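User: Before I run my own analysis I want an independent prediction to cross-check against. Here's the chain; please return only the structure tokens and, at the end, one sentence I can use as a sanity check.
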Amino acid sequence: MTPSGDPARRTARVAAGDTEAWSEVAPRGTRPVSTASRRQVVLVVYDGAELVDIGSVTSALHLATRLGADPGYQVRVATVDGTDIVSAGGLVLRVDAALTEVEEPPDTVIVSGGWGHLDAIRDRRLVREVRRLASVARRVVSVCTGAFVLAEAGLLDHRRVATHWYYADDLAARYPAVRVDADPVYIQDGRIATSGGVTASLDLTLALIEDDHGPELARWVAIGMVTYLHRPGNQAQMSIFTATRRPDDTVLRTVVDHIVAEPGGDLSVATLAARVNVSPRHLTRLFRDRQGETPAAVVRRIRLEIAARLLATTELSLAVIARRCGFSSVETLRQAFVAKYELSPRAFRRTIGSTVPPPDQGSHPDRDHEAADAEPDRELQAGPRKR
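Assistant: Structure tokens:
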């Protein structure tokens, strides 16, 4: 189907809930339908809750309903006693209900995150009401630090869960029976789902919509919200092209700066040590003591970060990226990428998408290396990896 009109304007109309625009573009079978039945969703908030956590969930579910989810979603934002909250950003948020007044079993209970989570877990009424509603809900979800509330309610014991990477160690220390994994964007474990920090709430919500209504509706919700067609749950939560933090130690800082500047060069321990006039043993000891990693581990991590950045922001071939980042071959790059991020370079590039226009079709200095990328992506062909 090739609908008429400006695609950018039409997509904007879809995002605004214009059902006429939706009827022009949505695949048959996912267009708006009239239905009185709605999945009841209770979104639990508290003072210090993060508005992005709240808005990502409510906006995605609302758009899914307007774009044809059948049944749709009826979201009620609730505090323990029905009072409005002051969000983490200082804005006041009006709520719809008190948790104590929610009597009908909800389809889904979602607990928001935010820096107010520690006060929230000390509110015995809040924890009790979350536990009560979770016992009768089909699905229980936390986003960001909302996992602390579920853990306090005893709902995460012996489960693998995600939370904001910054708070993962604290969650694990407070609740030793919970299997905290700081890496994934989100984790679905039976009827319990948990997400990483802040914008990861949108990825998890898209996954919930896909579970309920299939991938096509989730895809159009993502398009309407102008986001990536959602990230795989096992993608690393911390952006995998976040710049490596510069060490405080002068020797280590010099070495790390050199690694970042010359990822394709000779970065053996001996070479790096000679650059700063220390022995390889002394350099290794410095890295272990100050960074908690060996020099080789730091080199590989930085090379992968730079490779990820090039995959996301350029159209360079994998052969060229591998060479520039110090990997001996495309296959070596692929193996290292999968081992670190559980996603192949090609799958990552297809998920993230390039942010630059395709190269001109004329001569290209890297075109001779394209043949090295001709082999099919074996990981994609084999389907998702079993966890």
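Sanity check: DSSP finds 17 helices and eleven strands in the chain.
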